[in-house]
Specification:
This protein is mainly alpha-helical. It is built from 13 helices and no strands. Helix 4 crosses helix 7 and helix 7 runs antiparallel to helix 10. The two termini are 34 Å apart.
């Protein structure tokens, strides 16, 4: 049976549709602008002062010059290592901490949870963190990007809440079969919490991919720079002049703009490609703990 909508309902639906389309446009257009600008002819791009809804001409020189820069390749490889190994360490330590806090028989479970929550609001600050990293001999090493942020208190709380939804009867049955805590954690609880694990993976991976501040503070060797630090040099420090030495002097500034846009697309595209595969888990995982029965 088809239900006819009233004039007010039709108006309300039309307004909602218009509003959502506007929000989608406002959210998506900045990325489309950068994408169109990266493919545009540099001279026409410099002459344009308004919005761009399609590439102004077509060229790939910006992408070609970006990949000719050896630091881009080095930064890409470093970032891939930081994302993969760093996310693995984050998930490992967060899983162990969340499992321990989710067990009802854990000693001092509530005080430890309160101390962890306390760190979300108060911290020592940047200078004590730098002195601590320096005292441990981690300056100018890859470990300086892993150890100080190996666990996120917010992510641990989300994962702990997800683990608490696993029935206690599964743990009791496993213990009767002789399973210890590690087996219960990684063979039972972890596989049954894939939505929240996917959310944690996305959070940590995106965090490592976008990280540049700690690398700027703790790293001195350019061979260890992540991609985002190279991107910062190109966009903020304006090092495109060294990448356009073979370009005619009249078009150097225009080509520099094209290189900037191409670098942004190259640095953003991998995360955009990964997100759709995790989206179905993301919505499930982020809602864990929102409803109590």
């Amino acid at each position: 049976m088809k239900i006819r909508k009233s004039a007010g309902e039709v108006t309300f639906d039309a307004f909602n549709t218009f509003l959502m389309c506007g929000l989608v446009f406002l959210t998506l257009y900045p990325f489309l602008y950068v994408l169109f600008a990266s493919f545009s002819t540099p001279t026409r791009l410099m002459q344009n002062n308004g919005m761009i809804f399609y590439p102004l001409g077509f060229q790939l020189d910006g992408y070609r010059m970006v990949f000719m820069n050896p630091m881009i390749v080095i930064g890409y490889l470093n970032t891939l290592f930081y994302v993969s190994f760093g996310t693995f360490l984050n998930l490992l330590m967060t899983t162990l901490g969340a499992y321990a806090l989710s067990r009802r028989n854990t000693l001092l479970r509530r005080p430890i949870s309160l101390l962890i929550v306390f760190t979300m609001f108060f911290s020592g600050g940047l200078i004590p963190l730098y002195l601590q990293v320096k005292s441990l001999g981690l300056l100018d090493t890859r470990w300086a990007l892993f150890l100080p942020s190996i666990i996120s208190a917010y992510n641990m709380i989300i994962m702990r809440t997800g683990f608490e939804t696993i029935p206690a009867s599964l743990e009791e049955s496993a213990r009767l079969d002789g399973a210890n805590d590690l087996i219960i954690c990684f063979m039972i609880v972890f596989p049954l919490s894939l939505p929240v694990v996917a959310v944690m993976t996305l959070y940590y991976a995106v965090g490592h991919w976008n990280a540049w501040f700690h690398a700027m503070i703790f790293l001195k060797s350019r061979d260890l720079y992540p991609l985002q630090l190279i991107l910062r040099e190109i966009l903020v420090a304006n090092v495109t002049s060294t990448m356009t030495t073979a370009v005619e002097s009249g078009t150097k500034d225009a080509m520099g703009e094209s290189i900037k846009y191409a670098t942004i697309i190259i640095a953003t595209l991998p995360i955009i490609c990964v997100y759709p595969f995790l989206q179905k888990y993301f919505i499930k995982g982020i809602m864990i703990g929102a409803i109590k029965e």
